[in-house]
Amino acid sequence: EVQLVESGGGLVPAGGSLRLSCAASGFTFVDYSIGWFRQAPGKEREGVSCISSSDGSTYYADSVKGRFTISSDNAKNTVYLQMNSLKPEDTAVYYCAAGLYSDYKCSGYLEVWGQGTLVTVSS
Q1: Are the C-beta atoms of residues 48 and 94 closer than 8 Å to each other?
Q2: End-to-end CA distance of the chain
Q3: Strand 92-99 relative to strand 78-83: parallel, antiparallel, unpaired?
Q4: What is the pLDDT of residue 5?
Q5: How distant is the alpha carbon of residue 102 from its chain centre?
Q6: CA 103/CA 59 separation, integer angstroms
Q7: 81: Cβ–Cβ under 8 A, 6 or more apart, which residues?
Q8: Of 67, 63, 115, which Cα lies nearest the Cα of 89?
Q9: Per residue in 21-32, is it b (16+ CB within 10 Å) or e — as a string?
């Protein structure tokens, strides 16, 4: 079964840190660009970060640049999102997604989506 499973969400005070994990199974992980997206209540989904399958290039939204770091462990078929200096506005459900033909910004069609993990940052 082709799937992505996120974990690591939770409640954290402002200024704290969390590390999200996205474990892939059922497809050739290294062929795909993997990205993190988030959706806050009442808001549209937005791209947060992405890592390219072809050369490991990374992309960050301006809102998280300098605070979040995306990384990939190909041996574990897992992509991580290290989130530091969290702000209340980072509160959202975080999803990971994979695209075979996506670029380093995870542009284009993303075939596989996880179920999401909730991150809540208290003020």
Answers
A1: yes
A2: 40
A3: unpaired
A4: 97
A5: 15
A6: 10
A7: 19, 20, 22, 36, 48, 49, 68, 69, 70, 94, 96
A8: 63
A9: bbbbeebebeeb
Which amino acid makes up residue 113? W
Residue 55: what pLDDT? 85
The alpha carbon torsion through 93, 96, 97, 102 (nearest 10 deg) reads 110
Burial of 83 (0-12, 13-18, 19+ CB in 10 A): buried
What tokens were used for 22?
């996205």
Kindly report the number of other CB atoms within 10 A of residue 2's CB atom: 10
CA–CA dist 111, 6 (Å, integer): 16
Of the two residues 31 and 13, the one the predictor is more confident about is 13
